[in-house]
Amino acid sequence: MPNVAQPIEVIVNNGRKHLTKAEIAARQAAEIRAAADNIKPPGYLPKPLKRKFKALAKQMLPLGIISNLDCDALARYLIAESQYLEITERIAIEPLMISVVIPGQEDYEGDPVEELVVNPTREKLLIQQDRLFKQCRQGASDFGLTVTSRCRLAVPKKEEAKVNKFERFARTG
Question: Which positions ≥6 away from 122 have C-beta within 8 Å?
Answer without folding.
Answer: 91, 94, 95, 96
